[in-house]
TrEMBL record:
GO terms for molecular function: transmembrane transporter activity. Residues 33-414 form the Major facilitator superfamily (MFS) profile domain. InterPro entries: MFS, MFS_Cyanate_Porter, MFS_dom, MFS_trans_sf. Signal peptide: none annotated. Keywords: Membrane, Transmembrane, Transmembrane helix. It holds the Pfam family MFS_1. This is CP family cyanate transporter-like MFS transporter. The keyword Transmembrane applies. The chain crosses the membrane at residues 24-46, 66-89, 101-119, 125-147, 159-181, 187-208, 237-258, 270-288, 300-318, 324-347, 359-381, 387-410. The lineage of its organism: Bacteria, Pseudomonadati, Pseudomonadota, Betaproteobacteria, Burkholderiales.
Length: 439
């Protein structure tokens, strides 16, 4: 009888062991180096379709007779779609699987890039640009879930790598599009070549997805009532607004830095190198938040990078016609570090891969949706005022908003998860005391 009475307490131990085995099996079969390779090659294909428009914007305006506001749509449309399509992307991932959805998005991106280079009318130019935006939007929205599923403990590192790779793609595109356009005699070849990174990303994703599919799927846990959708949380809206302000700055400068620099006295070649320098520093700044460790509280980092941007924009406002490399570098430093933080904050508040997709899709929807107003706003203001100086003040206002939000962007303390882990440890301790032979 005593032996029979002692049997039930062994159950918590088995539950604890099953929980541990499920936790260990949660990351898919990709090693950390393999996951980094996938992130780098996919991410480098997600910005050329947008960045390549800046260096050839003058040619496009001349050939299709576009105003500044119309030309800004070539950057604003993809950015807006990156916000709108982030909303249904988690559902698409659950319905069809992340592997198929990302693969389809990369195929659409590559085809649309090629079709845009063959555009014969403004309508076709904008439609194909929408295809570029759709591919970028869907693939990009699922990368955070990929990170959370494979290496959740390395979120800051991997999102820094992802953001730096976006910057790498932007930098190479900004540096090469202008010279290729000059050598080829037009913008078409200079924009068509950026379908190649998409093809590389497709091959990489196909190989990686085989490893992921070969791994047994973990049991799907019941939704935790504590894992509320970010749209129902004030912190969710604040994180999204922070990301939106940063995207407003990034895409606004991406579209108009070259024309702005030329209006302030730079030559076409100098303005092109200004853009390349901007994207280079942006890329180098992306991993800085992961290297500058401040613990789980990222508010000092958020304030520091916002301050760097404000220093740079203040410099330009004070002396727009004497702009040099240092203020441009400060702008890129502030935006680049903030971008990585904006991509990491949703993962700080997410409990698992599915919850990360919900957080990321919401933040991207608001962040890119409002961020699309950057190129459009700067284009409209420059059309109305015939000057880019008012645009600098608008950029400064967005930078101030990021600084104001910094104190409120602390990491959520997931008490329910901590309590659950404590209960498991207590159950294991009790079971081990009663059945030391099983431990």
């Amino acid at each position: 009888m005593p032996a029979l009475m002692a049997t039930p307490p062994a159950l918590p131990l088995s539950h604890a062991r099953r929980a541990q085995s499920r936790s260990a099996a949660t990351p898919a079969g990709l090693s950390l180096p393999a996951a980094i390779v996938v992130l780098v090659l996919v991410a480098t294909s997600l910005r050329p379709g947008i960045v390549s428009m800046g260096p050839v914007l003058g040619q496009l305006r001349g050939e299709f007779h576009l105003s500044n506001a119309q030309a800004s749509l070539l950057t604003a449309i993809p950015t807006l779609l990156m916000g709108l399509l982030a909303i249904p992307t988690p559902w698409l991932s659950r319905r069809f699987g992340r592997r198929r959805v990302v693969l389809s998005a990369l195929v659409v991106l590559s085809l649309a890039t090629l079709l845009r280079a063959a555009a014969a009318s403004p309508g076709w130019l904008f439609v194909s640009t929408a295809g570029v935006g759709a591919g970028i939007a869907i693939a990009g929205a699922l990368m955070a879930g990929f990170v959370k599923a494979h290496h959740p403990g390395r979120a800051a590192l991997l999102m820094g790598v992802y953001a730096a790779s976006l910057g790498l793609g932007s930098t190479v595109t900004a540096a090469l599009t202008g010279p290729v356009a000059a050598l080829s005699g037009g913008w078409r070849a200079a924009t068509a070549i950026w379908a190649v990174p998409g093809l590389v990303a497709i091959a990489t994703w196909l190989h990686a997805s085989r490893s992921e599919d070969a791994q047994p799927r973990p049991e799907r846990a019941r939704p935790d009532p504590a894992n509320r959708h970010p749209a129902r949380l004030l912190r969710g809206w604040l994180v999204a607004l922070y990301f939106a302000a940063n995207n407003f700055l990034f895409f606004g400068l991406l579209a108009w830095l070259v024309p702005m620099s030329q209006s302030f006295g730079a030559s076409a070649a100098q303005a092109g190198w200004m853009l390349a320098g901007f994207t280079t520093v942006f890329m180098l700044a992306n991993p800085m938040p992961a290297l500058w460790r401040t613990g789980p509280d990222r508010r000092w980092q958020i304030a520091g990078f916002a301050g760097a941007f404000l220093l740079g924009i203040g410099w330009l406002i004070a002396a727009p016609h004497a702009q040099g490399w240092l203020p441009i570098a400060l702008l890129a430093l502030g935006i680049g570090g903030s971008f990585s933080l904006g991509m990491t904050l949703p993962l700080d508040n997410a409990a698992d891969a599915d919850h990360a997709n919900s957080w990321t899709s919401f933040v991207l929807a608001v962040g890119y949706g409002l961020g699309a107003l950057g190129p459009l706003t700067l284009g409209l203001v420059s059309d109305r005022t015939h000057s880019f100086v008012p645009a600098l003040w608008i950029l400064a206002a967005a930078g101030v908003l990021k600084l104001v939000l910094a104190p409120f962007l602390y990491r959520e303390q997931r008490r329910s998860s901590a309590q659950g882990a404590q209960h498991l440890r207590e159950a294991r301790s009790v079971a081990c005391r009663r059945h030391p032979d099983l431990c």
